[in-house]
Amino acid sequence: MGTRHEDQPAEHWAGAESLDPTPVWKQYVLIAGLLFGGLIAVLVVSLLAIAPQIVTPPALVPGDRLVLPISDLPGVNQTPKRIEPTLNDTGRAFYLGHPSAPEALGFRARWAPTAGAPECPVEIITTRTAGGFEFGYAARCETSAGRLFAFSSRGASADGTYRGLDQYLVSVSDDRVIVNLSRVIEPSERTGGPVPTGIPQPQAP
After folding, report:
1. Which residues touch 155 (CB under 8 Å, ≥6 apart)?
2. Measuring CA to CA, which residue among 48, 87, 63 is closest to residue 182?
3. Which of 55, 101, 151, 190 satisfies CB 3.0 to 4.6 Å to 137 for a cystine?
4. Are 196 and 150 in contact (CB under 8 A)?
């Protein structure tokens, strides 16, 4: 024999209110809240995206994007400028270079021969070229017996036997330079090939 509903104790019965639907106004409030939250999220993301274009340089905006005035960009083939994102921020210091009209490059002011090796300070040097001279870079690593590693104005190894300089992505507009410090572009390590015994020394212009 089955059990009929009316055989159940009264305390097990569902009240009449359980049959009432959720009031419509509560549904509207929930939908409105979700839409408002979505709009706020879109607004925040949009502001973060355009922040580098609306702040007054110099400024470091969310996302580790450094905004500099266009006056901080050196002239073409002029001495690169050393920049620290914030006061005494030597770990993220970099050189802002302008080797040619369409190129603006930012190279970290520290470099290591291999991943995980102690970093060496990078300095600016002047090297002779067929057309005169250009500004390049050099790193003297004490852990490599004081060896001098030289790099071109575009951060490439002087003789192709070791990795180039680490750099940050740089973009230029009419009135500002934007440097993305959130990601370091690391050149691949060189394997094989002879170890250089002599690196061109800095020359006077």
Report:
1. 105, 107, 137, 164, 165, 167, 187
2. 63
3. 151
4. no
| pLDDT value at 121 more than 90 | yes
Average pLDDT, the chain: 82
Residue 5, token pair as written in the block: 């509903």
Query: Amino acid identity, residue 34?
Result: L
Gap between the Cα atoms of 118 and 133, Å rounded? 31
CA-to-CA distance for 137 and 165, rounded, in angstroms?
A: 9
For 55, counting Cβ atoms within 10 Å of its Cβ (0-12 exposed, 13-18 middle, 19+ buried), the class is middle
Any idea where the domains of the chain sit in the sequence?
Answer: 21-53, 57-185
Q: By mean pLDDT, which of 24-28, 152-156, 170-174, 197-201 is the weakest?
A: 197-201
Residue 63 has pLDDT above 70, yes or no: yes
- How big is the chain by its Cα radius of gyration, in Å? 30
